[in-house]
Amino acid sequence: MGRGGGELDADGAVRWLLREAPTVGVHELPELVAALAPLLDATAVIVYVVDYTQSRLVALPTLGGPDREPLSVDGTLAGRAFTTEQVQEQTAAGGRLWVPLVHGCDRLGVLEVEAAATGPASADVRDAGELVAAAVTQLLISRRRYSDLLEQRRRREPMQVAAEIMWGLLPPLSFATDQVLVAGVLEPCFDIGGDAFDYALNRQLLSVAVFDAVGHGTPASLLATLAIGAYRNARRCGLDLAGTARSVDKHLRAHQPGAMVSAVLAELDCGTGELRLIVAGHPAPLLLRDGRMIKTLPGPTALPLGLWHMSSDGPRVEVEGLHPGDQVLFYTDGVIEARTAQGEWFGVDRLVDFVTRALADQLPLPETMRRLVHAILAYQDDQLQDDASAVMLQWRAAKPPPRQ
């Protein structure tokens, strides 16, 4: 694979791929990617996507190609490329590169590039692999909603209707700019009900919300859908944080009388680090700094959404000044209420201990959250009694002024 013999043409490969991709269906994308091999002096180029549990990498099928076995995220070079977001190289048995398919910090899977020759890959080969991987990532993001191929490959078991509704509503699990990073997780993947989250960055303002609708199954997912729809509508209408919360409460009462949704609604000014939040009958977020928990932020500051007619007090907006590098962890009660067979709670202390240890390992934030949800599942023998979701945001710093 370009280890001294072949002629690389990564630019030509990317141009050809971007020119041909719009003319074919999503199911033909793996064929187009596989056809790039000669231009990269490789014998094969295969796309793997991560499954919903973020525990396996599953190859997208190619016509007439071998049926490749899924690869574990834990304990493989392919998985290390996914978790670290860094290229990994295998030099034994002909050699191959594993290149992460990542957009910002949104991790889709990995690209396998099988070598045509042995020996360590040159810097040019690595650059070519990363260039092609970036193009493949963009194509998967832009075209995945036009077909069920990726959805079907990512599922280890049938998804319940409630989960189908919720996964179709959620934003990508992670997002990053030079100022802020957001990463979320949601379990159980195939049978979730009322847990949901949303975020949006508009200029310097990052909006984040976590919802936990009362109940289970499809009724809970529909209630959470209403809450997110009302939240997005209010946010896009330009309402401030308190006005947004009031609007969500109003729509819940109008369309689902008697229902309630606990929630945290937050806004982060990415220019100053000022965090404003409303904690509506929900576990209060945790503030972490330099790998340690600093404090539990104030909460609850209001009744659950849908019940505000029972109180004459308006929502109290709390304000917290973040330092560059600070992280704020939002979570639903299903995280801390996970229990062992003996009835021992996961609890806030265990949550804090796990997160601080993961942060000390300096893992990418999405990987910290992936490991957190797997730890919660393992604690309860993969049998959650309630939905468990968590979102962490990190304020990196204000943008430096432009050079004169």
Automatic annotation (TrEMBL):
As one GO molecular function, the record gives: phosphatase activity
Residue limits of the PPM-type phosphatase domain? Answer: 177-395
Gene3D superfamilies assigned to the protein according to its UniProt record, in alphabetical order: PPM-type phosphatase domain
- Matching Pfam families: SpoIIE (PF07228)
Give the organism's phylogenetic lineage: Bacteria, Bacillati, Actinomycetota, Actinomycetes, Micromonosporales
Where is the secretion signal located?
Answer: none
What's the protein name? PPM-type phosphatase domain-containing protein
Q: Which UniProt keywords apply?
A: Hydrolase
Cite the InterPro entries for this sequence. Answer: Bact_Sigma-Reg, PPM-type-like_dom_sf, PPM-type_phosphatase-like_dom
Q: Which organism is it from?
A: Phytohabitans houttuyneae
PANTHER family documented for this protein: STAGE II SPORULATION PROTEIN E, STAGE II SPORULATION PROTEIN E-RELATED
- Determine if Mitochondrion is one of this entry's keywords: no
